[in-house]
Amino acid sequence: MQEHMAEFLYYLRYERRLSSNTVESYGRDLQDFFRFCDGRPSSVVRDSVIAYLENLRSQSRSAATIARRLAALKAFYRYQMREEHSDDDPTEFLLSPKLHRKLPDVLTVAEVTRLVESPNTSKLPGLRDRAMLEVLYATGIRVSELCHLGVNDWWSDPPRIRCLGKGSKERYVPLGDLAIHWLAEYVERERPKLLRHQDCGMLFLNHRGEVLTRQGFWKLVKKYAVVAGITKPITPHTIRHSFATHLLENGADLRSVQEMLGHQDISTTQIYTHVSANRLKPAYQAAHPRA
Fold it and tell me: What are phi and psi of 252, to 5 degrees?
């Protein structure tokens, strides 16, 4: 079974082209299941799966954790059948627990404005920080995609960026005038000052001339949130959530937002319609004569 699991993880990484984090999560979940099954009759796999899920529930594991573990098992045993390592799927007809999706936290337009205008662009590396915040809000890309932009991955005519999403899927996302302005300012005036020795070819650099990490940018967002007087919890992903919500509130269609965000399934994007509806309720109740 360990050989079959290694083959399955290889398939996920190199044929499905899933991210390293996703593949590692599948591996951990499968290992946990096999440890649980150690000493159990290998011929009654379905009973072992049910017992494993019940054991997770008895440990008060969250519905999200149980659903993820079951999804890993379902994917593994479907692969086993496809490769003819198994004659049946022990996870067939097993239902995942219902998930109550938490609506994402978003910033108001005024809060976003204060945040992106917080960096002191007269001091190094203020232009870089302003450009990163502007690009993140203008495009809604993931922070990992932002940090891995190459110096040649943006254009001003027409204004857009090219990024690699999950599974190394390439997509192009439009850029607004403000983002283009600050990006051009950074590339022309500040990026050369951050270079050290050999150019790594990445767009956003740290003080050592190397690519700025996700953790480094996360710290910058926290810092500028304080400067902007934003007291609610905020991460780089909050800016992505705000991008999507603000677009939908102002009339963008769901399919366009899905494409810009790089969501494979539109149901992932639909959560932002609920956020928009919740944010519109107070305005509706205050303005409608029969609310």
Answer: -65, 145
Residues 121 and 51 in one domain: no
Integer CA distances (angstroms), 206 to 23, 150, 225, in order: 29, 14, 20
In the DSSP assignment, the letter for residue 229 is T
State how far the Cα of 17 lies from the Cα of 166, in Å rounded to an integer: 8
Provide the annotated active-site residues: 142, 166, 237, 240, 263, 272
pTM check: above 0.70? no
Q: Which of 125, 131, 126, 101 is nearest to 241 (CA)?
A: 101
Residue pLDDT, tens place only, 212-250: 999 999 999 999 999 999 998 899 999 999 998 898 888
Cis peptide before 158 (omega within 30 of 0): yes
CATH number at residue 39: 1.10.150
* Tokens describing residue 273: 């319609």
Tracing tokens 């205050």 back to the chain, one arrives at 286
Q: Which domain holds residue 62?
A: 2-82
Instruction: State whether 23 and 115 are in the same domain.
Output: no
Question: What is the side-by-side order of every strand in the sheet holding 159-164?
Answer: 154-156, 159-164, 170-174
- 118-170 tens-digit pLDDT: 999 999 999 999 999 999 999 999 999 999 999 999 998 899 999 988 777 88
Same domain, 53 and 119: no
| Count of the separate structural domains present in the chain | 2
